[in-house]
Amino acid sequence: MASPLLSMDRVTARQHGRAVLDAVSLRLGRGQTLALLGPAGAGKTAILLALAGFLRLTSGSIRLADRDITATAPETRDIAMAFDTDALFPHLPVLDNVAFGLKMRGVPRAARRAQALAALQVLGIGGLAGKPPARLDPAERRLVALARAAVTHPALLLVDEPAASDASANREDARAVLRAALGPDHTTAILATHDRAAAFALAERVALLRNGRLEQQGTPQDLFDRPATRFAAMFTGACNLLPAILLHERDGAAVVNVAGVTAAACCPPGMAAGPVTLCIRPHRVRAEAEGKLRGVVERADFQGALTHVTLGTQAGQCLVETAQPPPGLAPGVALGLDWDGTDAWAIPPEAAS
Asked: Which of 44, 53, 93, 299 is deepest in the core (most CB within 10 A)?
């Protein structure tokens, strides 16, 4: 098995007496894109700064391309970063801003200007080459910062809030821009974002962070379908979290008791019997005349393609998203709730808080 391009082993960093990173370990293969996902203060930007060499580690190590870079200077790491604040040089026109990294690497003037212009054109902003940063709007400034980071073809590209450059742009546009920046050889990249949808759309793997610690990592589908903790379940999308009892489990297939009703579910293999939290996404719950769990409609909100139905049940409040609401839907109507066992995931009690 090929060794990873990037390895972070139990990286810890402290600022002002507080751990901004707490024993974080990550692996990233060559050509992969990883999204760091989490709320403000989770440690996303701290990881980028630690990788770039701008945050001193308290303990742990970082290796890139089989080289220990834990204590090396930022300029020797072969890592480029597009900052959330864009950090363009105000006295240089856009073309010279993008060419700056190439200049530091000793690329001749004509060659670096040609490469810088090509990087701008790939992102669709070649017409900005002669403009000063002060004449750019925020979206343009961030695209220029991305071009400046990508033009040197670093071993690792770091991007802070990649989908924030234009709030009106859809994520397909953001994905196209990122793919263009990574180039045909697909530069290895790490993105930091608080936006779950952006992380899922732009990256092959996601690392969810909370209070400087790694909560869960895996593919976007792993995090969405198999959240490791209650926090992971809530942060990765709308979910119903129902108290349940795991009766027994075999190879990840489980039988649970939810408010006195026996139902099938999935869980981590080897989970012990006892209290669990059952996670079921709203679009995977069916509101029917009959069902596993009885409930009473509290409200029904028509939202175009979907109707959101909130029901009160003995297991707690439950949200259903359906494209085909049952006839006669109205507050006070009794309905049954049903779901497939493969769509219900049991979170262990030690991870549910």
From this structure: 44
